[in-house]
Amino acid sequence: CIYCRVFVKDENLEGKISATQVKRKWENLKQKYKDLKCPQTGVSTEDGEVTAASWKWYSVLDEAKGGRPSITPPNLIASSGPGVAVTSPSSVRSTSARTGRKRKDIEELICEMEEKEAEREKEAVEREERRWREMVEREERRERERQEQEERREREAREREERRDREMREREERRDRETKEREERFLQLFAKEI
């Protein structure tokens, strides 16, 4: 819609606002239009408040919202003479149709922006879920690695303990053998001496 694009461009909001914000802005503009169209009685505009005549969006909204041109052409009476312009119902209808299309364009733009916003929100949720899954997978992987490392340490400690036990038994067996051999030699020497 031209009016929305003009508004977004005039306010330097291109690429900066969401569909929800545009819709909220549209609702605020409609409310301000209604307030200016039927102002409260007894309210003065001497303090510089905006009026229907001074608000730059009034005529645009009046045309879009009211479904009629912002300037209502007068009905002229043909009795003034030949060549006098008379408004035809078809010119008023074509303007009405144009403003109806403009209103429809604004509504379509808002719907389109809402759809884009919903798509962005869906993508954001999917990204968040993907990040969560990756985080859980990383945590599970770390836990598995920690358990494997712990099991490896326990296995290595067990192996060291078994090796020490084996070496100690071998030393004891060697000492026993050596002691036995010494005793046998001593007994042999003692037997020879007698």
UniProtKB/TrEMBL annotation:
<feature type="compositionally biased region" description="Polar residues">
    <location>
        <begin position="87"/>
        <end position="98"/>
    </location>
</feature>
<feature type="region of interest" description="Disordered">
    <location>
        <begin position="136"/>
        <end position="182"/>
    </location>
</feature>
<feature type="region of interest" description="Disordered">
    <location>
        <begin position="73"/>
        <end position="104"/>
    </location>
</feature>
<protein>
    <submittedName>
        <fullName>Stress response protein nst1</fullName>
    </submittedName>
</protein>
